[in-house]
Amino acid sequence: MGAHLRCAAKLAAPVAAVFSFVQPAFAADGQINAADTAWMIVATALVLMMTIPGLALFYSGMVRKKNVLGTMAQSLAAVALVSILWVAFGYSLVFVGDGPWLGSLGRWFLAGMTVDSINPAAKTIPEALFMLYQMTFAVITVALVAGSVADRMRFSAYLLFSIGWFMLVYVPLAHWVWGGGFLGTAGVLDFAGGLVVHLSAGAGGLVAALVVGRRRGYGTENLSPFDLSLAVIGTGLLWVGWFGFNGGSALGANSRAVMAITATHLSACAGALTWGAIEWSIQRKPSVLGMISGAVAGLGTITPASGFVAPWAGVVIGVIAGGICFWACTWLKRRFDYDDSLDVFGVHGIGGLAGVLLTGVFASASIGDASGLLEGNPHLLLTQAYGVAVTLGWSVIVTYILLKLVGLFVPIRVSTQQELEGLDISQHGEALQ
Fold it and tell me: Exposure string (b/e) for 173-186, b if CB count within 10 Å is 16 or more?
């Protein structure tokens, strides 16, 4: 018996060593609130809906028929892959520990999390729910990047890229802004992801588009969308889901959540009307693609500001979003001749950048305990610009290096023949009839 015990002790020692850094459950210095919990369950479902089916339909409706399934597969893969990685280490590195650069591995694979655990960042809901809610943000951010290289990226390369991008871009940025890192400590405001989600995905997408190269026939052939009705449905799902995206970032069923949802909806409306009006004045016809693009631009741009500004500011921000994102997707794109397939940089990158800066202008102390330029605090605008510079620099540099590393293992782009026959057949062996 003694020999068996000594043997068991030897086997248990490595396991104990691995878990020696695991922290105990967070002290219950808050109290779980039923209303907050119910709202955050709904918000979590809404944000997950933004990726599948929302983003999947939005993106697939804007590509050609031969790439619809391949485009949907990228969104589906992002959900499955990033969810596992988030539970494994992402959540812990972002929201456990308050180091300036990264958190800790105290919750790797949710070790030590109990039914009563509470994260200090969300003291009225179960920690497991907070973890799931934040997971949906990581999922959609990775999925967004794929829009820039639609129609031409190899699926195996996309999977490797997604793993690396999540680890090296999303996780650090989320910690820096939301998890107690140096940007949040410096006073940078990002209520629901202007920096962490939209600017990072837009900048990363632009770099990916430049590295992968333009689509075959870009500028010479008809690359018009297969079915815009899918994109319109996707836009509707994104729009509704954004209520959970921005409203849920209040982390409770409270007045701030309602104000964030109100500003979000008004900004989307103003963005759609502005983009449509610009097209109407130039082309004499407002396109459906333009109106849904304007709505998404308004949604992305209000995201960082939604919990800090009054509803009227949401209208102003939406108008600015519709104008500046239209300019980025037309004049800027033509001027530098890059093929950002689904305008991730033009809509999300430029929109996120503008929204973060506009937070520094319109932030109201009566809404989010922070005053912006209009309330006599120009310093906040400078702080927001600092956050933009860090996010842009990190996303661009790391994305470029990551793509080059992925290219050492697998070809990033499909062959010419595979691109001509479409990603559905070449990457998945399936096709729409």
Answer: bbbbbbbbbebbee
